[in-house]
Amino acid sequence: MRTIITLIRWIVGLLFIFSGLVKANDPLGLSYKMQEFFEVWGWHFLHDYTLVFSLVMNVFEIFAGVAVIVGWRLRSITWMLLLLIIFFTFLTGYALFSGKIKTCGCFGDCIPLTPAMSFGKDILLLVLILILLFTVYRVPAMMSETGSITIVFISLLATAALQWYVLKNLPLVDCLPYKKGNDIVQQMQTPEGAIPDSFAIVFKYKKDGKEISFDQTSFPDNFDSTYEYMDREDKLVRKGNGLTAKIVDFTLQNFSGEDTTQAVFSKKEDYVLVLAQDMRKADQWKEEFITQYQQWTAKGITVLLMTADADKARTLFPEITLLKGDATVIKTAARVNPTYFLMNGSLVKEKLPAGKASRLIP
After folding, report:
1. DSSP reduced 3-state for 189
2. Are residues 163 and 276 in the same domain?
3. Are residues 80 and 151 in the same domain?
4. Which CATH number goes with the domain that contains 299?
5. pLDDT single digits (tens) 217-241
6. Are 32 and 277 in contact (CB under 8 A)?
7. What phi and psi, each to the nearest 5 degrees, are found at residue 255?
8. Residue 128 lies inside a defined structural domain of this protein
9. What angle do CA 104, 136, 130 make, to 5 degrees?
10. CA-CA distance, 93 to 210, in Å (whole number)?
11. 184-208: pLDDT as tens digits
């Protein structure tokens, strides 16, 4: 029995450590996933706090995982893990049964799980944590109190340091479709054999005080102005196989709003594409950018600035060619504002954060 409980402790601990490390590699990615849940629920007021939630959650997952393995304050830690896994199970269950969230972000972008896989994982963890909770005193701690505190404290500091580093320097492991070596056009192509979800539009009207629902195939023959429109919803009628393009909404527009994506990606020579979601902190990177711009253009290299804040960018950088882009796309592709891409056509040859632009071109 002791061997089984020890094994469960290691399984639970390692899963939480692994989950925390994968997400700590890209805490912004988790914060964006939180925003997706909050948008579905209408909790827009929490958007500004999602990064803090993400940082704290990642630290706690790793901290708790280490504590479970070494056996430090096991009963208290197990209770906290129980509350956390109940919360996670609710989220993954909501994603699975509502169909409104495609992935829960449990293991970040590096290991995308379907809602069903995530929900199953959380149910298993819930059972294992309950077993730990009722057998907490059957297996002693692996080391002394001092040793346990030291290991747990080091894990906490290491996780905090990791997250600070990646927020400044991009994820250590880039799992995004815009990573170095990827071809953006190829990432925008729908995989062979993909079957999309099929939806039917269901209309809701009120007539004679009664609510009536119908779709396009069952439109009432007597439909007239006495029908009062209430709402409409897209009802899933056939589930696809989940195969979709990894990039679905990347476009480049000039200042007049014309789509220039194909024109830019048809370039045969190297060029620099700078992605900056907004200009709120442009004073922190403006000098570096202008210096590098002058050096790159002196070498005959084209420099393009893609931003969702084009009007302010034109004021700050009037001499630079500007491209408009969607803010969500930019923050997905570039975790640091700005991020420098060395491109050839649609191929990402290099990708570096602000502060390291000088390394982009040898």
Report:
1. coil
2. no
3. yes
4. 3.40.30.10
5. 788 878 888 888 888 877 766 666 5
6. no
7. -65, -20
8. yes
9. 35
10. 33
11. 999 998 877 766 667 778 888 888 8
